[in-house]
Amino acid sequence: MSIILDHVNYIYDEDTAMAHAALTDVNIKIDAGEFIGLIGHTGSGKSTLIQHMNGLVKPTSGTVYFDGKDISDPEFDRKALRAKVGLVFQYPEHQLFETDCFKDVCFGPKNLGLSQKEVELRAYEALKQVGFDDDYFYQSPFDLSGGQKRRVAIAGVLAMKPEILILDEPTAGLDPKGREDILGLIKKLHDEVGITIILVSHSMDDVADYVGRIIVMNKGKVVFDDVPKEVFRHRQELESIGLAAPQVTYVMQELKASGFDVDIDVTTLDEAKNEILRVFSK
Amino acid sequence: MIRTDKLVFEYIRRDEEGNVEGITRAVDDVNIDVRPGQFIAVLGHNGSGKSTLAKHFNALLYPTDGEVIVDGMNTRDSEKIWDIRQEAGMIFQNPDNQIIGQVVEEDVGFGPENMGVPTEEIWERVDESLRAVNMLDFRKSSPNHLSGGQKQRVSIAGVIAMHPKCIIMDEPTAMLDPNGRKDVIRAARALNSVEGITVILITHYMEEVIYADKVFVMDKGHVEMQGTPKEIFSQVDKLKELRLGVPQVTLLAHELKKSGLPLPDGILTKEEFVEELKKLKR
Amino acid sequence: MLRDITLGQYYRTESIIHKLDPRVKIVGTFVFLVAIFMVNNAIGYAIAGLFLAMNIKLSNVPVRFIFRGMRSIFLLLMISVLFNLFLTPGDPMFTVWKIKVTKEGLKLAAKMAVRLVFLITGSSLMTLTTTPNNLTDGLESILKPLKLVHVPVHEISMMMSIALRFIPILLEETDKIMKAQMARCADFESGSIINRAKNMVPLLVPLFISAFRRAMDLAMAMEARCYRGGEGRTKMKPLVYHKEDKVAYVVLVLFLIICVAVGRMKF
């Protein structure tokens, strides 16, 4: 599995007065097994970008390759692509429509034309993967709490057995525990099931603990694409585009400025703790 | 300003045929006393009853049992209901679903129009309200072209234009990105400190409450904890139990303390944190 | 973006037409419509056209922008022109294959086309120069006499203005839900009509739920802001006739008289 975006440009409302570039010369390669954070503030183009990856949006110019094949080729099977590149939209619970949770999760695999048995098997497996309680399988999704609804919605995409899962702000609107649960679930999907993950967020704090690579978008362009530590080194640039490094990074910086001999490349809470302990144990 | 006395709110759950399935006690024996000019924060996970509580403060819901007194007026007194709603303004979570006007300034004028304020004075109020939230430049814009944070600030202006003594904000930042969140909280704090308006902020973002005068933590309809932010955030484990977290700096200090550094509880800002570490070094 | 559909869209700029009282513009549009259906000679159409052109010029709305709205009705226009062209009996002018084109047909087709274009341009000029809120205010005020017969004029106009505010939001939401279901391999494009209608369920159910949720939220927000119907409400932008409006009424009356007088002459 690999996705390559080669000189992708996308212009909104082409041929009209409102035309504006949503993506400008985006070049990205995504490999199997990665855990990527895609960061940018609202309107930076990140939502448009992820819709290119499963063919919901076609680039104005440039090419998107999936496993080496051009996805805008008329021969290319876009349905299969959408199953392999699972896309979970923001507030995914807003797309639930069936009378019970299980049926709703069946919707995706059913569209793939699988046998009833296979469909149900996959739905069951997906609901288990998101840690959904058997007792609620046949409940109306509309009676569930926000966090549970979101799990069902994620299961609805997982049931298509995607090789890569893209989640747009999966924690939006959840309380701290709910956020932690969903992020933990995503990590589990990556580590145990082996799904490649792209986590879209506007918060560095959310992604810093999990991802191995961060892509930062601004005004439709990729500004940074590197391991977290490298990206967070560009604190000033990040701030100038309305983003921020994780909070602990600022704490470490402040400590350094006050004469503590700490490493300021620290990005997670655990690292910060160990670093401070190290300095104090001297 | 706002006082609740043994406030209880129950609602009846019905099944599809309309038969009573059960009774849920969403707010259970809440006694709160908010004094004029205070900045109050109400924390709680989703479903803890905090929004239901908030809707009692301006007579959108009425107690099943107990009393809510707003500026000396009982919300049960149906003759006072419009006075109560004028004195205690309300901001809701979804920025799209509370803007009525199709032009920013017309939306801000909606409240005063309903109150029967003379035309000339409406214009004065709209001007000053938009200025107070720093949105004067957008007065002629369509709300559909604003960002979430900007929309919320328009909603705040719409409430200020009614000259309330108190503003209740029901998760105003839950659907916003970090920048929008900052702007809205900044606007709320300015209203409180400059205009002296009482603010009741309902949220589950811990960073937003560290400047509050008093914090209430809700769980299962009860007030589970109350105190200054310092007092509340000293109890990291208890908060976790209630599906909540603490600000990152507080968490870092807490972890360090557990690892043996003699830090005090309830450190809220990175400045405080650095000061405390400096003390330790000496 | 769907947010920017032209239908009933307001074009923001400064102009004398924008400044006119919405009641003048509503009455004016009505007068114009009456006029183009009353005239039936070339001079009459020329006068009406001139009047329209003058208004467009005064409105500062780019012509290109006005005609963009035409695209959607182009098909309708073509159909009515072709029908009239081919199906009107009378003096044959020439024949295309088996179909006769008559002199009367040509005349009628031209007339239809001109009327339709004028009609659409005229009414879109009104919506382009009047904010929807202003427009509903104007309607409310014009329809006020109906209150006497218990027509809830205020409520109707409030409903219209809320609808106008939420149409773009719901359109965008439709787009979003559609994409989300397509990401689950839903198919909205192929299949028989019945199948296609069935396939809309995953789109329509979430859309209705969302619309209801929004409606509840909005109702609560309105209540919280002391909304209690039209009684005792003041207006931020009350409708007051200014000098220009009076002048505009005079111009309208003159236009109507000229159109009727000249436009119905037989030469």
TrEMBL record, chain A:
The record's keywords, sorted A to Z, are: ATP-binding, Cell membrane, Membrane, Nucleotide-binding, Translocase, Transport
Broad class of where this protein is predominantly found? membrane
Q: Which CDD domains match?
A: ABC_cobalt_CbiO_domain1
Return the EC number.
7.-.-.-
Q: Any idea where the ABC transporter domain is? A: 3-244
Does this entry carry the keyword Membrane? yes
Supply the SUPFAM superfamilies for this chain.
P-loop containing nucleoside triphosphate hydrolases
Report the enzyme's class at the first EC level. Answer: translocase
Subunit structure of this chain's protein: Forms a stable energy-coupling factor (ECF) transporter complex composed of 2 membrane-embedded substrate-binding proteins (S component), 2 ATP-binding proteins (A component) and 2 transmembrane proteins (T component).
Q: What does this protein do?
A: ATP-binding (A) component of a common energy-coupling factor (ECF) ABC-transporter complex.
PANTHER family found in the cross-reference section: ENERGY-COUPLING FACTOR TRANSPORTER ATP-BINDING PROTEIN ECFA2, HEAVY METAL TRANSPORTER
Name by which UniProt lists this protein: Energy-coupling factor transporter ATP-binding protein EcfA2
Species lineage, top-down? Bacteria, Bacillati, Bacillota, Clostridia, Lachnospirales
TrEMBL record, chain B:
Annotated keywords: ATP-binding, Cell membrane, Membrane, Nucleotide-binding, Translocase, Transport
This entry carries the following GO cellular component terms, namely: ATP-binding cassette (ABC) transporter complex
GO terms of molecular function = ATP binding; ATP hydrolysis activity; ATPase-coupled transmembrane transporter activity
Domain ABC transporter positions: 2-245
Which region is the signal sequence? none
The UniProt entry lists membrane topology as: Peripheral membrane protein
Cellular compartments annotated:
Cell membrane
Q: What family is this protein classified in?
A: Belongs to the ABC transporter superfamily.
Query: What name does UniProt use for this protein?
Result: Energy-coupling factor transport system ATP-binding protein
UniProtKB/TrEMBL annotation, chain C:
- What Pfam families has UniProt attached to this entry? CbiQ (PF02361)
PANTHER family with a match to the protein in the record: SLL0384 PROTEIN
Q: How does it sit in the membrane?
A: Multi-pass membrane protein
A single GO CC term, please? Answer: plasma membrane
Entry keyword set: Cell membrane, Membrane, Transmembrane, Transmembrane helix
Kindly list any coiled-coil regions of this protein. none
What is the name of the protein in this document? Energy-coupling factor transport system permease protein
What InterPro entries has UniProt attached to this entry?
A: ABC/ECF_trnsptr_transmembrane (IPR003339), ECF_transporter_component (IPR051611)
The record's subcellular location field reads: Membrane
CDD domains attached to this UniProt entry? EcfT
Transmembrane stretches, start-end: 26-53, 65-87, 108-128, 247-265
Q: What is its main location?
A: membrane
